[in-house]
């Protein structure tokens, strides 16, 4: 069995929804795994990882509108009173869309649909440098 | 260690919430794993996988009403302008409820609660044939 | 390879959001794994597992308010007519925030951010005794 952890970094801005599919494919290409899984993961509590068809209508307009409807930026959340910061919405979004996702690997390839891309969502209110981990097991 | 990928197919209709527990159990019965995990997974960006107590009140009424409230079918999403299709709501639902779920296996059985069933949710607007993968590791 | 399943129990009350990070760390300390993953999991359909910065503003006020907004307790869900119970909201919350989460392990430690804690969310309407499982693979 192979267990191998690879990482890559991203420079992010608030509300970014970044296509990280090629980063994960590149990581996979450097490990000796034909069949297994990868857990794509970001250590933190103000980001999320999910799948989406990566086109501007969804990632620039529809998903940001959904997030703003469900967990709006703006209200004075109780979280703000604890630390004096303003990112209550960031934590709520990460609670609902956590930064951990498992994907099967078959014959050396990620098992993805034609239009399915892996995205990292920056929910925080400030630019960040994020480290994304790919834990391969197979 | 055993790594084994099995698959099964489903014919689906829009808004289907299908109980796939027996499909996954049947796949498990054919692999030589006593302890480990299974990643239940659908490659695509307009479906979801989750757990639910499988009874008609929830799967025919309450969950469809929840999905329609949070991510309604009907609005003219920006996604529609990119491709000329009408399934923006399908992508939003799959973003929030992604088609990947990991379940422990103990002594050759899925570790499920008494009422807990695994479901595939068809979020797309047209009938589909879906392939669901079970990646077993143990 | 090591595959080891550990468990711990929690006594819960409705709307509890409990920090289980130390329980998972303690389980990890007793298994012979340096690198791999843990699937933190609760068998059941009225609880959830996610990450959050564990401070009272979020766990006592902001997250309960979010859950009540998205999937309110109160309405007479169709689920209630099937069994005569009153926990339709519990099932909806668990459908959206399922009780399964995978976390990488590196050099014998959970790969967690500074403020990132693992939480079990009790969505049911009555006090429960819950068993949480940690399936370690590495």
In short:
The structure is a homotrimer of 138-residue chains. The first copy, chain A, has helices at 21-29, 56-70, 78-83, 88-96, and strands at 3-12, 17-19, 36-41, 47-52, 100-106, 109-110, 117-122, 128-137. By secondary structure, chain A is of the alpha+beta class.
Task: List strands and helices in order, with pairings.
3 copies of one chain form a homotrimer.
Chain A: E1 3-12, E2 17-19, H1 21-29, E3 36-41, E4 47-52, H2 56-70, H3 78-83, H4 88-96, E5 100-106, E6 109-110, E7 117-122, E8 128-137
Antiparallel strand pairs in A: 1-8, 2-7, 3-5, 3-8, 4-7, 5-6
What does it look like?
- Three copies of one chain form a homotrimer.
- Chain A has four helices and eight strands; from the N terminus they run E-E-H-E-E-H-H-H-E-E-E-E.
- The first copy, chain A, is elongated, with a radius of gyration of 16 Å.
- In chain A, a hairpin with a 2-residue loop joins strand 5 (100-106) and strand 6.
- By secondary structure, chain A is of the alpha+beta class.
- Chains in contact: A-B, A-C, B-C.
- Chain B binds chain C through residues 1, 35-37, 50-53, 55-58, 60-63, 66, 70, 96-97, 101-104, 106, 111-113, 115-117, 137-138, and chain C through 1, 3, 5, 39, 41-45, 70-71, 77-83, 88, 91-92, 94-96, 98-100, 102, 133, 135, 137.
The radius of gyration computed from the alpha-carbon positions of chain A, rounded to a whole number of angstroms, is 16 Å
CATH class of the domain at 45-74 and 84-138 in chain A: Mainly Beta
Return residue spans of chain A where pLDDT drops below 50 for at least 5 consecutive residues: none
| Distance linking N and C termini of chain A | 6 Å
State the secondary-structure class of chain A: alpha+beta
Number of strands of chain A: 8
**Name given to the CATH architecture of the domain at 45-74 and 84-138 in chain A:** Sandwich
Round the mean pLDDT of chain A to the nearest integer and report it. 97
Strand order of the largest sheet of chain A: 1-8-3-5-6
Q: Give the helix proportion of chain A (percent range).
A: 25-40%
Inertia-based shape of chain A? elongated
Please summarize the sheet with the most strands of chain A. Answer: 5 strands, antiparallel
Strand content of chain A: 35-45%
**CATH H-level homologous superfamily name of the domain at 45-74 and 84-138 in chain A:** YjbQ-like
Helix-strand string of chain A: EEHEEHHHEEEE
Q: Write the CATH fold name of the domain at 45-74 and 84-138 in chain A.
A: Jelly Rolls
Helical stretch count of chain A? 4
């Amino acid at each position: 069995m192979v267990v191998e952890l690879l990482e890559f970094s991203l420079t992010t801005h608030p509300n970014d929804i970044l296509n990280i599919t090629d980063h994960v494919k590149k990581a996979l290409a450097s490990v000796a795994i034909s069949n297994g899984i990868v857990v794509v993961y970001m250590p933190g509590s103000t980001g999320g990882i999910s799948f989406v068809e990566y086109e501007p209508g969804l990632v620039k307009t529809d998903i940001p509108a959904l997030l703003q409807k469900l967990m709006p930026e703006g209200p004075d959340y109780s979280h703000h009173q604890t630390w004096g910061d303003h990112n209550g919405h960031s934590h709520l979004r990460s609670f609902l869309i956590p930064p951990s996702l498992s994907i099967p690997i078959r014959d050396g390839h990620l098992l993805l649909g034609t239009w399915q891309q892996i995205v990292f969502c920056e929910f925080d209110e400030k630019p960040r440098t994020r480290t994304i981990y790919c834990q391969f097991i197979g």
